[in-house]
Amino acid sequence: MVGGHREGLATRWTLGDAARTLVESASLYEQEIDPVLRISKRLVLLLTDSSRERLRSHSIECDGLLVRIRAIALTLFQTGHGFAVTVVELERSDGVALSALELLEAQILITRFGKIAWADARTGDLVPGAPFLLGDLVHRLATGKDVPSHAAQRVTTCTYAQFAEAAPTADRDLFGLHLARHYSTDYVISPDVGGVVFVADFETVRHAVALEGSATIVGATGDPPELPSFVRNFKTVAFRRHYVPIALLARHEHAFLVARTSASVLSDNEKEGSDQVVQRLERLRGDSHFFRLRYRFSELSFITMHNALNHAFRKVLNLDRMMEELSSDVASVESYIREVRDAEHRQREEEKHRRYYWATLIGGAALAGLTAYTIGREVGELILGLNEVLWHEKFPEWAKMLPGAVGVVLGLGVAAIAYSIGRRRGPAAHEEQHAGHLSEHAMWDQVIHRALKR
Fold it and tell me: What would the pLDDT profile of 75-124 be if each residue is shown by its tens digit?
């Protein structure tokens, strides 16, 4: 996958010819430029005063180190995270073998804010131009834009160091810890230091893994005094081909989890609950499931050492705990937001049904009063009519208004009684009588419309 053979999961780009020439010698001249006038250049790491002082305290004189960029590979994952894996080799300009402390100081500078500059390959003099960060150079090559990255984050490292002479295992482990944690010799390491995991199946090849970086230290123990040939070639045979990709997969998972954890943070307004927030949390949960199926490897090789290194990265980066907590937190927050949203929906429904209740109450009272009025008026008119037919009595004009008056009084009384009874009963509970309340409202609405049509 990290080699670019699974394009559905990740794609990989390497330097073209022009870019390779740039990082190797910066000799990108137009064809008409006289070769005599062309200057072959090389990158030099500029040591700070504090770096020189630490080296001098160990009787090491160094004005600068050569930086050789052997390769840059840009790996972009379908999750949206990308990594520019830069292979850098460090050398002294005088050809003397690099000491362990010089390597440590150089790595600390590169991973933080140490500057590099172009120097004439023949004279060693710096050429005109401002020093720059290695990260800015890589960023420009990766993005194709001539702007600095402005990245405040530090660079993670996978450092390889091979001792030319035998050294005690404890000393090599301590050196690996300094490299992995990016600690200079100013830090006095406690015997109980945490945050680092050692993979130490072999005395000659040992790994230190930390959040900041990792280090593979190769060296003889003195018995035998020399390393076997396959161990001497460990950097090209195993380290770059297998161990760096293992670290890349772990760093990708860590970057994914950090980004998704940050995306799950809710503002005060979002805590109130909304459909958009629920959808965002559902996408986060879906992204986690997608990642687990495609990029998460509890075991990734048939070789024990590869799996042991993978386990070390997973432990020190807290990948399993972060994945579990992210899934649990997203599920819990999503459940809470759903409850808040549902509670708001229920409250709106209750308010709506309360309005329906008042409409039903008033309408029911009006219907009862209208019915009583109609009955009272009709009965009064019937009595007057019977008197006129049976006894031929003529009533005065004001008497003809009595049925209507009786109907009005009776209707108002019945309406008041119906309203009073409805008020005492109160609205039905929404959870228990939601459907019945709507049915009752619909029934009364139908009755009222029928009465008006009459």
Answer: 999 999 999 999 999 999 888 899 999 999 999 999 888 899 999 988 88
The residues, any chain, with a CB within 8 Å of residue 68's CB and separated by 6 or more, are 24, 42, 43, 88, 89, 90, 91
pLDDT of 255 reads 92
- The pLDDT, as a whole number, for residue 260 is 85
Backbone angles phi, psi at 334, to 5 degrees: -60, -40
* Mean of pLDDT values over 329-343: 73
The DSSP line for 27-56 is: ----TTS-GGG---EEEEEEPPHHHHHHHH
Residues with Cβ within 8 Å of 441's Cβ and at least 6 positions away in sequence, in order, are 356, 359, 360
Compute the residue count for the chain: 454
Contact between 174 and 280 under an 8 Å Cβ cutoff? The reply is no
**DSSP H stretches of helix in 115-241:** 134-143, 169-181, 229-232, 234
Neighbours of 227 (CB within 10 A): 20
Return phi, psi of residue 96, to 5°.
-70, 145
Q: Name the least confident of 4-8, 37-41, 371-375, 395-399.
A: 395-399
Burial class (CB in 10 A: 0-12, 13-18, 19+), 340: middle
Q: Which helix (H) or strand (E) holds 323?
A: helix 319-391
Give the rounded percent of residues in the chain with a pLDDT score beyond 90: 36
Q: Is 428 within 8 Å of 401 (Cβ atoms)?
A: no
Cβ burial of 430 (10 Å; 0-12, 13-18, 19+) is middle
Closest CA to 256 of 182, 154, 152, 327: 327
**How far is Cα 141 from Cα 287, in angstroms, rounded to an integer?**
30
Closest among 202, 230, 195 to 216, alpha carbons compared = 202
Q: How much of the chain is helix, strand and coil, in % rounded to 5?
A: 55, 15, 30
No. of helices (H) and no. of strands (E), the chain: 13, 10
Q: What is the mean pLDDT of residues 200-228?
A: 91
Peptide bond into 224 cis (omega under 30): yes
Strand, coil or helix: what is 205? strand
Tokens for 293? 């199926």
